[in-house]
Amino acid sequence: VGAAVEAETSEDAREQILRVRPTGPWVSFGAVGHQWRTVAAADLVKDVRIELLAAAPPLIVRVREADGTPAVGVPILVEPKAPGARFVTDDGGTLVLDHLPAGLAILDANTELRRGPRLRVRAGTERSVRMVLQPAWRVMGQVLTPRGRPVVGATLVAYGPEGPLGSRPVTDDAGAFVWRGPAVARLAVVVRAAQWAEQRFAAAPPGHGGLTTDLGEMRLESTGFTLIGKVNAAWHGADAHVIVEPLVAAPMREIFGVGQVLDEPRRASLAADGTFRIHDLPTGLPLRVAVRGAGVPVDAVIEGAPDEEVEAVLEPPAGERLAGVLKHPDGSPAAGTRLLLSPDPRDGNEERPGDLVVLTGADGSFSRRGLVGRTFFLRAYAAGRRSLLRRVSLPLPKPLALQFEDVIRDASRRLSGRIHDGIRTGLTARSDNPLVGEKTEVAYGTPLAGVTVRAAGVETLSDKDGRFILEGVESLAPSITLTYGFEPGTGAMGDARPFLAAQRLEVQTGGKPLELLLRRAATLRFRALDGLDDKPLPFVHVVVQTDEGRTVFDGGVAPRDGVVELTGLPPRGAILTVLANDRRYRKAPIPLQPGLIEDLGNIRLAYGMRLEGRVLGPEGRPIPGARVGAYGQGWQHAEADPGRDRELLFRTAVTDTGGRFVVQGFDPRKPADLAIWAQGFAPTAVRVELPKFSDVVLAETEVTLVRGAYLALDLHEPSGTRRGLGRRVHGALVDLEHAHDGTDWLDLLHRGMLGGPVASTAAWRSISRHMLYERRGVEGYIVGPVRPAPYTLWIERPGFAGLRSKLTVVDPKQTVLIDVASGHERKFRGRVTRLEYELETLR
């Protein structure tokens, strides 16, 4: 891999003779039954000999569906990796791995298409493993034009809380499609069709029965527009491209991550003359056009009408260019070295926010164009070399000539110590601490061999006594980040699976030897039975949390002979929740001990209590299509159960034409917390007290929803006149809280005329996307519905004192218009005006 190769066999047939022409800085060699070896292209001289170590005996991986049938064509992520290889199960659901070294290996079946386990296996000892996938969720529907005609060839992309999920089906001649993917609590389905603006539809898994959701007829609203653009840049790289996305989505994606925006930006590469064309863009909202890879990054805002062709000419400045050559102490090129550029002096070989990454080529040269700024700090790390840090002032009079220095090996640059598991074996050692006395004995745990220890680009393995020495560790910072743990592909001879993941701590060089603790993991075992007939359940969903609320396991499990065994759990108190359709089991606390198995024996999943109710509007009319979700500890509470999204999968409902809903599986010892929302109505939370001894609970008190008000927001700087408003404010944070209890109802990241519902927690960001209606009007950015109530409005802007204002929403048929001005006196001035609007107008 990484070269063009011609091969022939030697006369004695014992060697392969290769003629290698590298195509990159690194070349990888492999063979059946052998480990891979990667060599720098500069080291491939004439008649060089490449020896491949023998791999562990083949490991057979059998992947099965939840019903036991073979899972065909499932990609499996394997560590240690094989360069250029992609592992996929065959027609029998089987995968054979013959490149693994003896020791720890990691197999991961979690992909965009399916959800499965992540196993830690011991290659060389285990010969076969079994992985069972979670059941797939099916979402179907029919895409139609406004006049009811089928849309043929439309592509559907689904997004969950963490980004794209599942397959990408295409509609047939009838406009129908079937999407398959993992089950999540909330799903947004984006429809993209030629000549039509993309449109989003919401989907949620059913509360009962199989995992199938029918969205019915999905009608597209309007045609899109075409953007014809040209980038006039002094240069543009081979990867120069243009990104187009809604202006409201851009800051949310950049600040809160890709998973917080239920969409993907549209991308187009630049032609040789700098032109590009993008079709079928959404209308009625501003779009950000971002140019990347051609000069200094440039952003512009456009907006188009249906069937319109919009032309845009973008002229990014060239920026500054950084170039140079990096060599080893002997003068050879440092090929494939990773350089990190930062605007301020930093230390560490891990990429940090604000860093730019540059890789050296086969001749050690590197280049980066389009830099904005005059001063940069360049740092690099390589094994056996001193860390490199250089201040660079742009523009450069000539390319940089950088050279590594040999590592300095002295006591001030040494890290040493011992790694153990904390479990006493009877061996002791005398303490050298004069404060505790010479005769005091300190007990250590069992030493751990084969643990990878890494700091500042230097790494090693602990020996049979658990001891390690890192030479030449240096850093410009007062402390160094040291990591240690079992890693795949390191040749660890011990059984690494019962140990926790790698640990991190801050240390200093030149001190006394360190005593590092790598704790053994705990194992939880139980047999899941149906609470009615005591039959083993074929598939359950298991959630394990620590006593502090951190989720350590969340996934589906197909028990083997009814037995579930979970390994790799932290040794502390645990909370176990087992779900299967309407049945559930919960036990807490469960004391887990390091290195031991906690066997719960038979556990029986109970059906729980059944809750029935009706959702009505303010006129007493039933509301069909309202979403009802049951949560364990309150749906808007900041300290709610982190696993509630998973429980939501099994306890949701949609009201029928009579407004009725049924949700099952409640714990009779606790009240039922329901979150209810419907389009045009303010989200509502209700608590239902359940009787202690009953099989069926009827919610006699009906839930009544109220119409919600809408919030219009526009922020400006002062214009210098008494009443005028200046340019719009960018980057202000807006928070709307209940005045009586401080509950976060809405957070806005405001960028000029547009903002977006975000929040302080991932759960709230996810909920807000589905409960709040958004639209841009002439008054500004409109969001809602918001329940009529007193609120406290907080507005913050970096560098300015925050504004706190009281706000009372009285009439649900109103839009609250907020104009806030920020002046050079470093404080906010604001005024609140109420305007009357009809909800039909906003829709």
Can you characterise this structure?
With 843 residues, this protein is mainly β. It is 3% helix and 48% strand. The protein has four helices and 66 strands. Strands 56, 57, 61, 62, 65 and 66 form a six-stranded mixed sheet that branches. A five-stranded antiparallel sheet has the order 60-59-58-63-64. Strands 7-6-9-10 form a four-stranded antiparallel sheet, with no helix packed on it. A hairpin with a 6-residue loop joins strand 56 (709-718) and strand 57 (725-728). The radius of gyration is 31 Å and the shape is globular. Residues 427-431, 433-442, 633-644, 744-781 and 820-843 have low confidence and may be disordered.
Question: Quick recap of the structure?
Answer:
The protein is mainly beta and 843 residues long.
Q: What is the count of DSSP helices, taking H or I runs of 4+ residues?
A: 4
- The parts where pLDDT drops under 50 for at least 5 residues are 427-431, 433-442, 633-644, 744-781, 820-843
User: How many E-type strands?
Assistant: 66
Report the span from N to C terminus.
57 Å
What is the overall silhouette?
globular
Roughly how much helix do the residues carry, as a percent range?
under 10%
Q: Give me the Rg, rounded.
A: 31 Å
Structural class: mainly beta
